[in-house]
Write a structure and sequence with these properties.
With 219 residues, this protein is α+β, with helices and mostly antiparallel strands. It folds into 2 domains: 109 residues; 102 residues, Arc Repressor Mutant, subunit A (Orthogonal Bundle). Helix content is 66%, strand content 11%. The strands form 2 sheets. It has a 4-stranded mixed sheet, with helices on one face. A hairpin with a 4-residue loop joins β1 and β2. α4 crosses α5, α5 crosses α6 and α6 packs antiparallel against α7.
Length: 219
Amino acid sequence: MRVVAIGIAVIVAILLVAAVLLFANLPDANAFNARVEQIFVANDDLTSNAEIKLLEILAQSGTAFSDVLQSYRTVIFVLLVFSTALLIAALVFLVTIIILNRRMSEIERAGITVSSLLISREERTVYINNMEFKLTQAAIETLSVLAEARMDEDVMTGAEIEAVISGRSPADCDEAAGATRIKRLRDTLGNQMVSELLIRNIARKGYMLSIDKDVIRMI
């Protein structure tokens, strides 16, 4: 918030200086009228109707010029206020985006925080922080194996996952088969952040759920 306050102060200061310089260099609205008045004073011998009429026209022109210049000043002031509001809004949005990106990075580094994970095999449903996900039979089996392994604090390879589900020996199972099950589970969960951060892939070791084992319940 301090950065936002400093940025807003700088923007307002710059535009304020620009406004002062701009209005200071604009011609005086009464300059034309003053010049016409000088002509009246310097030429008091102009007494014919045509000459007087000409001076009246000049005076009216000076008044019109004064009004136009005053309207220009108003338009310039409104534009400066509008520019200030746009720049402040852009700065606030920029800072907001930076803050959100930092928070997203923190979430990615820390992993997803799961306060409860309830797996219902019968309904083929998993509840993650009260968010409901309908899974396929294969996906619920894979998630159940990972949950049981997490409660035992084990890391399972793809071959071990396939072995538990298929009932065969790990030596007879292919690592790629377990990796395929993990991929399908992630695809079924749908939400990329949930699936990628919930199921962690540990290099050269295997797969595990990156959550506290105490929050896992299976029914």
